[in-house]
Backbone:
């Protein structure tokens, strides 16, 4: 039996960010701590830390040091606009989508 969640090889477009955090994200300085996000959004520190980890996985922010994060985008809508451009390119066939089986084997699709 598996103790944790299983991850699939399929990349999903799912953004699970509370609206309070979206509004607070715009007000954050370029370099911030999770405590700053908690203070601006009204959530507790632990929730803000978990949200920062999730934002880092999405690619909105990156970790600078043990306590500080750096914003890669000024707003969440800017990030989503970039993702939508990538999706439109995929739909038009300009970019080839790698197959999931090739990713498992460690091979590159050409």
Residues:
């Amino acid at each position: 039996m598996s103790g944790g969640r299983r991850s699939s090889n399929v990349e999903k477009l799912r953004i699970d960010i509370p609206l309070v955090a979206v509004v607070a994200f715009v007000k954050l300085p370029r370099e911030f701590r999770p405590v700053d996000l908690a203070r601006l959004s009204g959530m507790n520190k632990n929730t803000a830390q978990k949200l920062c980890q999730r934002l880092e996985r999405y690619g909105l922010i990156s970790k600078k040091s043990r306590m500080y994060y750096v914003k890669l985008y000024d707003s969440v809508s800017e990030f989503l606009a970039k993702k939508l451009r990538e999706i439109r390119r995929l739909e038009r066939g300009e970019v080839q989508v790698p197959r999931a089986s090739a990713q498992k084997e460690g091979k590159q699709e050409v």
User: Anything to note?
Assistant: The helical segments are 19-27, 34-41, 45-58, 76-92, 100-105. The longest helix spans residues 76-92.
